[in-house]
Specification:
Elements: H1 2-6, E1 12-16, E2 20-25, E3 28-36, E4 39-44, E5 59-60, E6 72-75, H2 79-96, H3 115-120, E7 126-130, H4 142-146, E8 148-152, H5 166-182, H6 191-195, H7 208-220
Parallel strand pairs: 7-8
Antiparallel strand pairs: 1-2, 2-3, 3-4, 4-6, 5-6
């Protein structure tokens, strides 16, 4: 219903990108549709301050560069808000001189498809953000791998498990343990070996008391 309303003005065309759908009248942007979290929102070239005390609970997103020309955001949470969005868009058309035209409404509804099917059709992609330059191992079909974009310097995308780093991590830990063992100092030798360094006193001809004193003297040294 909302998209049909946006396209019911002369020269208004839409263009779909990965992140949003943009509606232009000639070269001028008159609206955008995009998701904020899990909520579909409409972005309009209106001043949010003009609607601060109104029933339209709009938000100012002028701090976002991608919405600098459409700073007024309105969340489409229910059917009533869609009707309000149509009224807000009418304000845009009134300011820009938009002219309504007769147009046959189209059904833009799409049936649900899983992520695997969407990736296979080229209608979706998944993004993997890597922490380092270590190799990653993609799981899934060739079409899924082809639709995967890898971005360095971050964590894996939420809900995705395409990275299998368990085995390399274990191998690295084992290597570290071996390195630590090899770096043990010589004075950490087994007790049996260190016992040989103590001179025997049993056959020295000393009395038991003298032998005890000799052992104590060696211990002090």
């Amino acid at each position: 219903m909302l998209k049909n309303e946006l396209l019911s003005y002369k020269k208004v065309k839409s263009r779909m990108s990965w992140k949003r759908e943009t509606f232009r009248m000639g070269k001028e942007v008159v609206a955008r549709l995009g998701y904020r979290g899990n909520t579909l929102c409409i972005y309009l070239p209106l001043n949010p301050a003009d609607y601060a005390e109104s029933k339209y609970k709009v938000e100012d997103v002028s701090d976002l560069a991608m919405y600098a020309d459409t700073p007024c955001m309105y969340r489409l949470k229910n059917e009533r808000r869609i009707r309000y969005a149509i009224k807000l868009f009418a304000d845009v058309m009134e300011k820009t001189g938009g002219v309504r035209i007769e147009r046959v409404a189209e059904d833009y509804y799409l049936p649900y498809e899983g992520i695997v099917e969407l990736i296979g059709e080229g209608l979706a992609k998944r993004v993997i953000k890597k922490k380092s330059d270590e190799p990653i191992f993609l799981q899934g079909t060739a079409s899924e791998a082809a639709a995967t974009i890898i971005i360095p310097g971050g964590e894996s995308a939420e809900g995705q498990e395409p990275i299998d780093e368990a085995q390399p991590a274990v191998a690295d830990e084992a290597t570290d343990e071996v390195a630590v063992a090899e770096e043990q100092p010589d004075d950490m030798a087994p007790v049996e070996e260190r016992a040989d360094d103590i001179a025997p006193v049993k056959d020295s001809g000393l009395t038991i008391a003298d032998e005890g004193n000799a052992v104590e003297e060696q211990a002090e040294v």
